[in-house]
Amino acid sequence: MCRARRSSPLLLLVAATTTLAGGSALAAPAHDAPHGEGPAVSFADAVAEAARSPELVAIERALRDAAPATARRRRDALHPQLEVSPGWSDGPAWQLALGVGLTGGVADAAAEASRAGLAATAARVRLHQRDRRLEVGARWLASWLAHQRLRLADRELEAALELERLAGEATRLGAATRVETAAATAYRLDAAARHLELEGEAIDADLALGAALARPGPVRASAHLPPSVGAPAPAAGLPIDAASQRASATAASAAAAAALAAGRRRWELGARIEQASGAAAGYVTVGIDLGGGDRGRHAASSERIRAQAASGEAELATRRAEVEAWRRRHDLEHARQLAAARAAQVDALVAWTEALDAARAAGEVLLGDLVLARRQLATAEAEAASAAAALTWAEVEPGLASGGGGR
C-alpha cells in the first residue's frame, strides 16, 4: 500500500479515537448492555430445562404410575368367576358355580411384555431428552454468538461514528480531502448496515432458543460461555440411539411371546353346587377351549418382524456412534487449532492498528489505511467469536449426546 508522508490535522484529530478501536472487543466489559428484551439463561440452566419439558415430565409420571400395575399383573391374571343362578322347579331352586380359567404361561408372558413395553417407552424418552439437549445447546450457542457479534458491531459503529465526526471537523478546518471524508462516511454506513443485520440475527437466534425451550417469547444466552473442561470422557455403555432400538426389539419379542401364550388352549377348572326340590348336588367342572383361528400366530409374526428390524437399527446405531466418536475427536482438535489461530490473528491486527495509531501523528498514513485496519480487525474479532463458539460446541456435544449436561 502506498503511504502518503504528509502532516494533516485530520490525522491528529483521528488519534482521539484510539481508545474506541484499540484492543480486542472480544473482551467485552461486564457493563455492556445486552440487546433484546428476552430473559437471559445460562448454558447449564438451558440444558437442564430442556430435559424438564412438560411432555417429557408427563410421560415420566405415567411410567412411574404404570410400574406398580405391571408388578400386580401376575396376581390379577387369574380372574376367578362366581356365578349364581336362582330358579324354580317344584319349588325354589338355585345353582352356584365358581370357576377359573388357566392358560399356561400367559400371566408371565403378559407381565414380561408390559415390563418390556415400559422399558422401551423409557428408552424413547431418554432419546427424546438427548435430542432436546442437543437442540437447546446448539440454539444457546447460536444466541451467544449472535449477541457477541452484535456487541462487537456496537463498538465498531461507535468508532466509525466518532471517526466520521472528526473527519467532519477536519473538513470544516479545510484539513481533510474529499477522499478522506468519503472514506469515513462509507465506513460508518457500512458499519451501520452490518449492525442492523446483526440485530436481526440476534432476534432470530433468541426466538429460536425460546422455541426450543418451549417459552412463549425470545430467550437470550447469558454473556459467558460455559467453562472449558478439556477433552470429554468416552461415553460408557450403548449409545442412546442403539439402547432405544435394543429396548424396542426386546419389547417386540416379548409382545410376540405374549401373543402366542394368549393363543394357547384354555382350561376351565371349577365347582358347581345346585339345590332344587329339597335335594342338593355338587359337581367338579373341567373344560377345555377347543379354539380356532390362528391362536396369535399372525400377531406374533408381526412382532417378530418389528423385533428384527429394531435389532438391525440398533446395530447400525452402534456403528454410527463409533463414526460419530471419531468425528467429534477430529472436530475438537480442529476447533482448538482454529480458535488459537483466530486469537493470534486478532492479536496481530491489534498490533497493526496500534502501530497505525502511532504513525498517524507523524503523517505517515492516510485515513483509508486506518479504516482498512479497523475493518479487518472487526472481521477477525467476529471470526474469533465464531471459533470460540465452535470450540465450546466441540467440547459439550459429546456430553449432551451421551446423556449429560455437556459441562
Radius of gyration: 37 Å
Distance between the termini: 47 Å
CATH architecture: Up-down Bundle
Strand content: 5-15%
Q: What can be said about the biggest beta sheet? A: 4 strands, antiparallel
What is the count of β-strands?
Answer: 6
CATH topology tier name: Outer membrane efflux proteins (OEP)
Average pLDDT over all residues: 80
Percent helix: 55-70%
Taken from the alpha-carbon principal axes, the silhouette is: rod-shaped
The helix/strand class is alpha+beta
Listing every helix as H and every strand as E from the N terminus to the C terminus, the arrangement reads HHEHHHEEHHEHEEHH
Q: List the total number of helices.
A: 10
CATH class: Mainly Alpha
| CATH H-level superfamily | Outer membrane efflux proteins (OEP)
Which residues form runs of ≥5 with pLDDT under 50? Answer: 1-33
Q: How many structural domains does the protein architecture include?
A: 1
Overall description:
65% of the residues lie in helices and 11% in strands. By secondary structure, the protein is of the alpha+beta class. It has one domain: Up-down Bundle (Outer membrane efflux proteins (OEP)). The strands form two sheets. The protein has a four-stranded antiparallel sheet with strand order 2-3-5-6, with no helix packed on it. α4 (54-71) runs antiparallel to α6 (106-172).
